[in-house]
Amino acid sequence: MPQLDSKLSEVVNQNVNAVGPSGIREFDQEISSIPGIVKLTIGEPDFDVPEHAKEAAIKSIEENKSHYSAQKGIAELRAGISNYLKQRTGVYYDPASEIIVTVGATEAIFSALTSILNPGDKVIVPTPAFALYFPIIKVAGAELITIDTSDDGFVLTPEKLQKVLDENGDSVKAIILNYPSNPTGVEYSEAQLKALADIISQHKMYVLADEIYSELTYGVEHHSIAAMIPGQTILINGLSKSHAMTGYRIGYIAAPKDFVTNASKMHAFVVTAPSNPAQYAAAEALNNGLDDPIPMRAAYHKRRDYIADRLEKMGMHIVMPQGAFYIFAKIPDTIDETSVEFATELAKNAKVGVTPGSAFGPGGEGWIRMSYAASDDDIKLAMDRMNSYLLELTK
Q1: Which residues pair with 323 in a beta bridge?
Q2: Residues in domain Aminotransferase class I/classII large (predicted)?
Q3: 3-state DSSP call for residue 36?
Q4: Out of 151, 245, 251, 326, which could bridge 102 as a Cys pair, Cβ 3.0 to 4.6 Å?
């Protein structure tokens, strides 16, 4: 086993060296070895990829479509993305010049941010938020500015946004909005987005709209800020959640041509091009499977209602999710533990895995996130175990 030569100990990208691993994944790995644990930690759909999408992937292999694709993605998929976004957002994106197919939404976020940020730039992230944003901003040499939304129902208010922009001026180059939200499941209404768009439009900045959960909403309509300020919006989406294609790693960027021209360079430097079979499967899903998410959404809706009812009966305050497949629950005030301590003890003693709220930034401490992308049986077992555990604690 080779050991790093001591002369190289300080030969390292300092920005990368300064960030730690994902708190979500790290905690999940720590508790995964507990025998019999039921995990509600990771946002991994328990559904299978639609059959017609799988068949398209197999067909592409059989037809020897095994060479490098166009760096921005195959034409069929980019056309499908364009048609989908025109239907859902009302904004037309040219498939040839305004769309990039990426290796998951993760690469889309990385390629987008690293193509616009320079050292000293600032990026606003309303928190609690998907923790991946934080290290990417730092690796790009930019400064992260968080806005704690926990006192406002986990929704960014125009007043708080304006205050931060007044304090930081033109150094703010972007704001990241994720809705429906991971970890809270909160969705922004059209009026809420319009109020934020009115402010953003007055500043020299992008809004990176991470709408990966846009197909998973419950009783509310999803609206995209891209329809309001298309010239300032970098729209991120993908098929991991809508079509349960997490392992296929297909995401995309849709944005104005001038931005895409530059972002496609970073995309090409990082991955060259996405996998062909995955792209053909995604093209089939978008061109012929826009109804595929409907049964999944119905199942998630049912699970949401079940887990929310069980948690409320346990005396836990929750934020009722309007989308995604996560529920954010407040640790009872009677329990004097941090979110990491509570989640650790719950895993060890009740064999239930949840994610500590502190992993999602300011405003997350004192809360836990649970994914209801797990099976009905696992959710019921987890709730039974959690109920028994909390009853024991309060004796």
Answers
A1: 217
A2: 37-384
A3: coil
A4: 251
Rg value, the chain, Cα = 21
Residue 22 pLDDT greater than 80, yes or no: no
φ/ψ of residue 333, rounded to 5: -60, -20
Cβ atoms of residues 219 and 187 within 8 Å = no
Quick one: three-class SS letters along 228-281? CCHHHEEEEEECCCCCCCHHHCEEEEECCHHHHHHHHHHHHHHHCCCCHHHHHH
Residue linked to tokens 């098929």: 239
In the chain, pLDDT over 70 holds for what percent of residues?
99
Domain residue spans in the chain? 14-48+293-394, 67-289
Kindly report the backbone phi and psi dihedral angles of residue 182, in degrees, each rounded to the nearest multiple of 5, phi listed first: -105, 110
Q: How many CB atoms lie within 10 A of CB 170?
A: 11
pLDDT digits (tens, 9 = 90+) for 47-70: 999 999 999 999 999 999 999 999
CA distance 194 to 200: 10
For residue 260, pLDDT beyond 90: yes
- Assess contact for 120 and 173: CB atoms under 8 A: no
Chain length of the chain: 395
Average pLDDT score over residue span 94-102: 98
Whether the CB-CB separation of 216 and 293 falls below 8 Å is answered with yes
- How far apart are alpha carbons 389 and 368 in whole angstroms? 15
Cβ 247 vs Cβ 57: under 8 Å: no
CATH number for the domain whose boundaries are 14-48+293-394:
3.90.1150.10
Vertex 355 angle, CA 37 and 32, to 5°: 30
Give me the residues paired with residue 90 across strands: none
Is the Cβ–Cβ distance between 166 and 187 less than 8 Å?
no
Confidence check: pLDDT of 297 > 80: yes
Q: How far apart are CA 395 and CA 379, in angstroms?
A: 25
